[in-house]
Amino acid sequence: MKIWVNDRLLDREQATVSVLDHGFTVGDGVFETVKTNAGKPFALRRHLDRLVQSAAGLRLPTPEVDRISGAILSVIEANPVEGVGRLRITWSSGIGPGGSGRELDARPTLVITHVPGTPWPATAQIVTVDFPRNERSPLVGIKSTSYAENVLALAIAQSLGADEAIFGNTRGELCEGTGSNLFLVIDGELLTPPLSSGCLPGITRALALEWCGAREITMRLSVLLEADEILLASSTRDLQSVGRVNSRVMPGTTKRGSQARSDFATKSLDLLDL
Question: Is the pLDDT of residue 103 over 80?
Fold first, then answer.
């Protein structure tokens, strides 16, 4: 396995960053996870645009998109994946002091990996967690490497036999999963929480809104117990139906949900880059 670190492609054993890197010590960085298909990244331009936006939100130096695009090509060529792959781009503030402050002249750290993707089950099992997303957090909309809250929530979900944990926000509204957005089929309509709920502006979420005729609407967290179908949306899942939420066994897939998955799969073929 070859890994890109800053300006070099290195063997896995030599691919290291400093233990003083702020991405490691305080989670001061941003990242993107991109699905690849036969070595072609899906919606790469959108992911790189969001990487730049996330960096701006954390007041990090602006990622150099042309430089990163060239590095991505080198990483994919060095780590060929026949089927579905998982490309990860991490951009941190670089070496910093032990506290929260940054070194003013620090050079950002860039790490890029490409590995085979792990297949998701046909349907997901989800549970809600009892601590909320803060829709007023300064990190809302930023894909930050400060992921401890997500790690904890997912660990709780997995301990209960589920694949994903779902957050409400401080107002009791439906928000998102630890690594996914949500779509619900209710009375034949495809609905998703608005960005004002505090959810991440997911790439798959945005495409599903464009391609599948979904509508944004504020919903209570309890709607999960009433929906006809629930779909998880993420860059590696696409649109995945949910088979169980908490103790509720879902009634099965709906015509509207099946159509959305079909539309997404068909149109996504046009967004393979490189």
Answer: yes
